[in-house]
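Sharing a chain and its predicted structure for anyone who wants a worked example. Both blocks are below, sequence first, tokens second.
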Amino acid sequence: MLAGIFLNQHYKIFPYQIIFSNLVAKKYFLIRVFCKSDDVDDKVMLVILEDEGTPDYSLLLQEIEKNNLLSMISGKKVYLQVKESVSGKLENQKVLQLPFSGKKESFNFSGSILLNEMNLKNIYKIIGHPIDDLEDFLDNNYIRLLEKILFQKISKPPENFSDCILALSDSSLQLLLNHMLHKNIASTDMLASYIYGLERGGERIIENLSKPIRQEVVEKVKTAKLYSSYRWADEVKYIIHRNLYVAARELDIPVKGMEILDYMRRSYELSVVKAELEKKRVEDWLLLFEKMNQFQLILGEINRKTLTLALTFADFSRLENVFRKFMSKKGLEVLKEDIEFSKKSELDKRYFSLGSFYKSVKDLYYTPIVEKLDFEREVMSRLNSSDAVDLIVDEIGFAKVVYALKNMPGEWIQTVLSGSIKNIYEDAHSGKIKIKNYGDYRIEECRKAFLKALLILSDEEKI
């Protein structure tokens, strides 16, 4: 995942390693990382280890210099500049090696980006998490922590997200808006305030609403200026943007300008699901539910296609007798045929379906468990940042988060909420804004949903 700071989605990335940098390379480059606001002027080593054909690395260097990921997630101006170096200058240093390979028209090549301790500390600094001097900073714990922080950062829509949305085709924009309104994620009042804030761009949003909704929103836009404020506009923008951002991923709608964020997110999701598979295999989860006499929950709640693709990673001989209890002979044969056929599917597609399987099975598994847990103790011990809270917003919606956290200790709330979600929390509980169909009578329900999402995200090492 860390390689995405420098490389785009056109390169194949391999798992990182911690090594001593005595690599002998064909070519050496230095990537200058410059951020004036953080007083960072650092150099990262890029080495080409092998190539074949007629190598021309000018395109690779241009692509690195155009990579604006650090700027997007930090909100700062961060520049990357690449120059060829005569030789490597990291001999016998402990470094983080990020291996990759690429294919261009005239040649193939493989190489590595090498990050030393200072390089990593400067990246932490740029993304707003400065690290004090520590011994042996280059270890798996700090690298995984950096990946987790980056994942939380890229899960936020960038500041210019409204421009990205307005650049969508009419059909894609209509699909996103209908999805958001159909799921009651945002009210027409919120949408009207958001459109009012967009000014000219708002006309395009209105044009792509369905006719019944369009007239209602147009009327509300006229009155939006009477009750709109900078704070309310910011809160509405947070809700609308986060939900459109999530909807674009769910509906697999590509958003121009977001390619590097999508690539980074997919890379991290793949690493998460592969780690999940190592920890607990598909058949182990299914056998656990069979032991709990709840196997029918799996068959009833998990999408058949998702289950079938997940079973391509399982040793089905361990499960055949279990499925036989719940299926006819013909049904079992069809399932086995579907599994064999699904093994021909693209590997990444199978992994993402496996991720959906793990999320669904954990949702079922944790449902009775959260009933018995102490909400305040669990949440306060696991949550430590507003970025982490934002991930839970993506899972269960802002309203459930706001009511789940009601009556939590005030000092703790100040440490985990910031920005728009903090303002929404304060305004909802002071009576300045009302959330339709929500009140104190739903606190317990919201807390169960919140805690279940937190446990699953913690399992996935996203929080």
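Comments welcome. Residues 4 and 264 are 6 Å apart (CA to CA).
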